[in-house]
Amino acid sequence: MLDKSYLVPWGKRGSLSTDTEAAVLAELVHESTPLPAGVRRERFERSFAASVGSRHTISVNSGAVALQMAIRMLDLAPGDEVIATPQTHRATLQPLLDYDVRVRFCDIDPTTLNLDPAALEALITPRTRALLLVHYGGCPAEMDTVMALARRHGFLVLEDCVHALGARYRGRSPGSLADLATFSLRNAKSGTALGEGGLITCDRDDWAERLHRLRAPDRDARTAHLQPEPAGLPGTSYALPLQRGCVRRPGSDATMPEGVAALGQAQLAGVETAVARRRALAGRLDEVLARYPFLTPQSAPAHSVHAYHLYTCLADHQELRDRLVLALDRRGVEIQLRYFPQHLLPQWRHRGHLRGECPVAERSWFEQHLNLPCHPMLTPHQQDYLIEAFDGALAELNGGAPAPAGVPATACGPR
Questions:
Q1: What is the reported pTM?
Q2: Residue ranges in 107-181 assigned as alpha helix (H)
């Protein structure tokens, strides 16, 4: 099947390209310092930690690896329970398939599409060890309530900040709101470094030390030094050192390449500009939606600032959503729906999860939500066309007539 060419494509890159980035890469090619030396990587880690307000940042070679290593810090044991959001990409929860734990999916808030704190408390048991959440689309989760529950019941919280670079929650940055957090630098994200890269942030010194070991080829282990064992080699007096201990995990050699770190450092200064472009376009899309109340946008609470990695809106009913998707596609606007409820994927159904477990998330996916292109690589002309196409598609669903500003429209079609 041939790929369709769209007038307004979905974002393949989420950050802006500048001459500064090209100069950084050219410098790397011509310098004599060994690229695995880590000078740029360490500089990038310090800068990133300062930008999000964390004590430590550990860089790795992908966002998926960042999640795998962060989940290792939870020290999950057989029989533990982990609460997770169903409204995320499969990579967030995939590492849990390696553990003999019970995953309990927590339903989402119908407005923010983040994990619903009101549904969370009922899922907590004495075996709850951890909570995995996502700031969906760049809308910060309600972290004060979540962390209060975590402290009261004694479990850890991991925030997947894959969408949240540039967002704010009560003046603080995601990545500093929970026990530990992960970021991705893959192509469509607000920070994009040669297409791949990952970061873990935390405040605990012991976790940072373990993560540095895991990132290297070295093992993550508790060892005890005993008396040397004599007669190590025949005909010599060499004494064989003896260590005994518990190896928790082998090392991985998942070090972030210097080129990725150098590009990440160069892009840090441009994150706010890229996110500002997303917010400006989201504001224009919100203005269109305000005239058609049968479609509502995902929105952040007043104390939060949305990063708009995704622009998501919710239709009143499935027929309306499906007709809107087709109308936009005919106009050359590429639409994607993100994400299929995780508890209904085959790997989680195999573990006993069923439809009806998270009814809000299920209704959102199957009946209501769609995501519009909203990224800084859209040209001014493409943005103008997107607004025109969106308004035209909604007018078509409204009986063929656009709704004037300030005049509400009525939804068409059966409920």
A1: 0.89
A2: 117-120, 143-153
